[in-house]
Amino acid sequence: MRSIAELKIKLFADGADKAQILQAKANPLIKGFTTNPTLMRAAGVTDYEAFAHEILAVVTDKPISFEVFADEFAEMERQAHRIAGWAENVYVKIPITNTRRESSADLIRRLAHSGVKLNVTAILSLKQVCDAAAALAGGAPSVVSVFAGRIADTGIDPVPLMAEAMKLVSPHPGMELLWASPRELLNIFQANDVGCHIITATDSVLSKLKVVGRDLDDYSLETVQMFYNDATHSGYRF
């Protein structure tokens, strides 16, 4: 059986629900936070900056990432500097390309070397990892976010790719590899075994941490009891 105690990877909570963020902040296992515009929209956030300041008023001692929402690089740069100015623990998320598939490497390089802490996001290929690492090298502390869950969605095992990504990131001090978009709790242990520095997960995955280390026979019995109780309470008859 595996246990949470063996994990060396840092667990970050991914979301934009204030109540869940506050709950995660109180959990000593959670070492940081990430957000994105899609999660904010799903949570009903209408004022981006007001929401960010509201969260930063309580999340003061752990890193948290907020993403730019422009598509033109000049506007991304303006937004990045503004977001970076909100608090010392803020990382600015920059997508690896814009919607026209134009690389953001030059922008990433300028921002990183101007002292902006970056989280380069939406990465799915090793070439993108290589481009991001080269642009970030020698700059401010940074995170390279590889969407391993989306890679898995295409039928490709993300573990070998993440292992190669670690080789590209690990030579650079201050640069961390993040396993993004996990689909199941097992991914936390896979990311840990590969050597990833961080994994970020939504509450639906993090809530399963309580199951880690359960005896499988006991867990089987609990499952049988669940099926029986639901059938009984539904009043099914033949």
Descriptive account of the structure:
- With 238 residues, the chain is an alpha/beta fold.
- It has one domain (4-213): TIM Barrel (Alpha-Beta Barrel), CATH 3.20.20.
- It contains 11 helices and 8 strands.
- It has an 8-stranded parallel beta barrel with strand order 1-2-3-4-5-6-7-8, surrounded by 6 helices.
- Strand 1 (10-14), helix 1 and strand 2 form a beta-alpha-beta unit.
- Helix 5 packs parallel to helix 6 and helix 6 runs parallel beside helix 8.
- The radius of gyration is 20 Å and the shape is globular.
Note the main attributes of this structure.
11 helices, alpha/beta, single chain, 238 residues
Summarize it.
With 238 residues, this protein is of the alpha/beta class.
By CATH, the superfamily comes out as Aldolase class I
DSSP strand tally: 8
Q: Tally the helices.
A: 11
> What's the CATH first level?
Alpha Beta
Radius of gyration: 20 Å
Tell me about the largest β-sheet: 8 strands, parallel, barrel
Structural class: alpha/beta
Order of helices and strands: EHEHHEHEHEHEHHEHEHH
Shape: globular
Main sheet: strand order: 1-2-3-4-5-6-7-8
Task: Just name the CATH architecture.
Answer: Alpha-Beta Barrel
What level of helicity do the residues show?
A: 40-55%
Give the N-to-C terminal Cα separation.
41 Å
| CATH overall fold name | TIM Barrel
Average pLDDT for all residues: 97
- Domains, number: 1
Stretches where pLDDT is under 50 for at least 5 consecutive residues are: none
Amount of beta strand? 15-25%
